[in-house]
Every structure is written in C-alpha cells, then in structure tokens.
Design brief:
Elements: E1 3-12, H1 15-28, E2 35-39, E3 53-59, H2 62-69, H3 72-84, E4 85-93
Antiparallel strand pairs: 1-3, 1-4, 2-3
Helix pairs in contact: 1-3
C-alpha cells in the first residue's frame, strides 16, 4: 500500500543551509522508489498556519519511505535542513482503492 511523506516548510532560517540540503537531498534519492507528486509548487493555505512550501513524495510502502528517510545519505542532508528551515514532516499511509 502506498505511503506518502509530506514536508511542510514553515519558515526559512538560512538560505545557504537550504541550498546545501537541496544538493545533498537530491543525491540521497539514489535508487529509492520515490515519486514526487508535488514539489514547492503554488500553494494556498485553506486553514491553519501559512506554509512557505510543500513537498509530497509517494513511496510504494511505508517501509520504502523509512528506508529512504532513515538512510545515511538522507540523514546527512537532513542535518542541513534542520539548520536551514523549520519544517513539519509527516508520513501517512495511503488507502487501498
């Protein structure tokens, strides 16, 4: 069953750290089965706190999402994201159709 990782960027703190994150996160993709469904496109906040940006990644399973997120490559990139911006990151299980 598909799983989705949702990144919600609330506030950028350091553009240089975010540039480093973007480079390292792109390389961390490796051969992980990631399908980017949304990637910092135009957004409209309908309720709640305004977001600066949103990324929606699809994985075939929650285990595949964790394999990517927990990988040493992504964790190295994540260190720069944590310095560069405030994010909320959510893993949500899809539904069977």
């Amino acid at each position: 069953m598909s799983a989705y990782v949702i990144f919600i960027r609330d506030e950028t703190l350091n553009a240089d750290e975010m540039a480093t994150y973007a480079e390292k996160a792109g390389k961390a993709r490796g051969d992980h089965p990631i399908n980017a469904l949304a990637f910092y496109g135009a957004l409209e906040t309908l309720e709640g706190t305004e977001a600066e940006g949103v990324v929606l990644l699809e994985f075939p399973t929650a285990e595949a999402a964790h394999a990517w997120y927990d990988s040493p490559e992504y964790q190295a990139a994540k260190a720069h994201r944590l310095k560069g911006a405030n994010y909320r990151v959510v893993l949500v299980q899809g539904v069977e159709q």
